[in-house]
C-alpha cells in the first residue's frame, strides 16, 4: 500500500498502480491521474480500520490464523511494519469479501426455493 508521511495513515492506492501509470509508453489519461489522486487523498486511520477488521474477523472467522494476527496487531502485542499492516488489511478485506459472496449465494439459493421447502444447514467446521 502507498503510505503517506504519517505512520498512522495509509492511502487506498497500491504502489503497483503508480508504477504502472509511470511505466506506460503512453501518458496516462486525465481520468486515470484524477482517480489515483482521489485514492491517495482519501487516507484512513490504520488503527481504526484494523480495529474494525478485527471485530469483523472475530465475528466471521474466530479461529482463522489471519484473525489472530490482526488481533495481535490491534492489541499491540505484535507490531508489524507499515507494509505488513497494509497487507494484513488487504488480506482481511479479501477474506471478508469472500464471506459476503458466500452469504449472497446462500440468500439467492434460499430465495429461489419454493414456499414450504425444507432446508438443511450443516456446519463445515
Question: Could you explain how this protein is built, in words?
Answer:
The chain has 125 residues and is mainly alpha-helical. It folds into two domains: 1-42, no CATH class; 45-110, no CATH class. The protein is built from five helices and two strands, in the order βααβααα. The protein has helices at 15-23, 30-40, 46-60, 65-75, 82-111; strands spanning 9-10, 44-45. The protein has a two-stranded antiparallel ribbon. α3 (46-60) packs antiparallel against α4 (65-75), α3 (46-60) packs across α5 (82-111) and α4 (65-75) packs across α5 (82-111). It starts with 8 loop residues before the first strand and ends in a 14-residue tail after the last helix. Residues 1-12 have low confidence and may be disordered. Residues 89-116 form a coiled coil. Keywords: Coiled coil.
Rg to the nearest angstrom?
Answer: 19 Å
Summarize the helix and strand pattern as letters: EHHEHHH
Shape category = flat
Number of domains: 2
Cα-to-Cα separation, first versus last residue: 33 Å
- Structural class of the secondary structure composition? mainly alpha
The portion of residues assigned to helices is 55-70%
- Uncertain stretches of 5 or more adjacent residues: 1-12
The biggest beta sheet, please? 2 strands, antiparallel
Strand fraction band? Answer: under 5%
Query: How is the quaternary structure best described?
Result: single chain
State the helix count. Answer: 5
Please state how the strands of the largest beta sheet are arranged side by side: 1-2
**What is the arithmetic mean of pLDDT?**
78
